[in-house]
Amino acid sequence: MDQQAGASTASDEAGTHRRITSFVQQRNRLTEGQTHAWDRLWTAFGLDVADVVSGLVPYDPPAWFGRRAPLVLEIGSGTGESTALQAAAAPEVDHLAVEVFEPGLAQLLMRIDEAGLTNLRLLRGDAVDLLRERVPPGSLTEVRIFFPDPWPKRRHHKRRLVQPAFVTLVASRLAPGGVLHLATDWAHYAAQMRAVCSGEPLLENTSTAADGWTPQPAGRPETKFERRALAEGRDVRDLVFRRISAPHPQPPN
Ligand SMILES: C[S@@+](CC[C@H](N)C(=O)[O-])C[C@H]1O[C@@H](n2cnc3c(N)ncnc32)[C@H](O)[C@@H]1O
């Protein structure tokens, strides 16, 4: 599959190549409750992206869920506040949540348990690797990215997840008619998302507003990040882009 889509590399002073990621890998300790949930539930509901990418375990959603259903992929599910609510609200749809933050995944396992969800599975690791290496083209009904890390400092903008190569990768994995739903409370990142997605030939903006924003879709629940942003006076922007079958023909020069 595409070798470089969605990833970028930089050379450090020793001349070795390291990949720029959209996250910082931290060693976070799980609370007692999270550890308990992890020990009980991870093998039933979770997989490591590295194991899927290496081929140690298959990427096979119909086998994992035990049925063939529309498939939503959420990137960076955090503690899974909206993930669990959206999965509960759409039992006919299967949901994959990809996250690197282990306590967040553990928290989501607890939510799965509490709500008795059967249509949600978790993947621990980098969503870019999963998309690039294992998710077949045209296989996703929806990709959700809610409140991705904003990397507000200018010198860190290159770490932002939503970049042209990444959006091209996501668009290729969506089925025609499938949607990419983005939300952020950082005005600069929102403008970057709108520009990058508008520049992707396989996507079209579903918004009818002149500025291209979409009012918060009824299905997206408010999260902790969102409440904090609103309390701090930042506006939240939603963007919903649809995958088209083939790029619109360009007018001749
Ligand atoms: C600011 S949090 C938002 C969490 C959640 N979406 C919400 O709205 O509450 C962004 C999350 O994205 C995760 N993340 C960033 N890049 C990622 C990647 N490439 N693959 C998987 N998760 C990623 C981070 O670990 C972090 O938990």
TrEMBL record:
Q: Which InterPro entries match?
A: SAM-dependent_MTases_sf, tRNA_(Gua-N-7)_MeTrfase_Trmb, tRNA_methyltr_TrmB_bact
**Catalyses which reaction(s):** guanosine(46) in tRNA + S-adenosyl-L-methionine = N(7)-methylguanosine(46) in tRNA + S-adenosyl-L-homocysteine
Which organism encodes this protein?
A: Pseudonocardia charpentierae
State the family it belongs to: Belongs to the class I-like SAM-binding methyltransferase superfamily. TrmB family.
Q: What class of enzyme is it?
A: transferase
The molecular function terms in GO held by this entry are: tRNA (guanine(46)-N7)-methyltransferase activity
Residues the record lists as binding S-adenosyl-L-methionine? E74, E99, D126, D149
Main function: Catalyzes the formation of N(7)-methylguanine at position 46 (m7G46) in tRNA.
- Name of the protein in question: tRNA (guanine-N(7)-)-methyltransferase
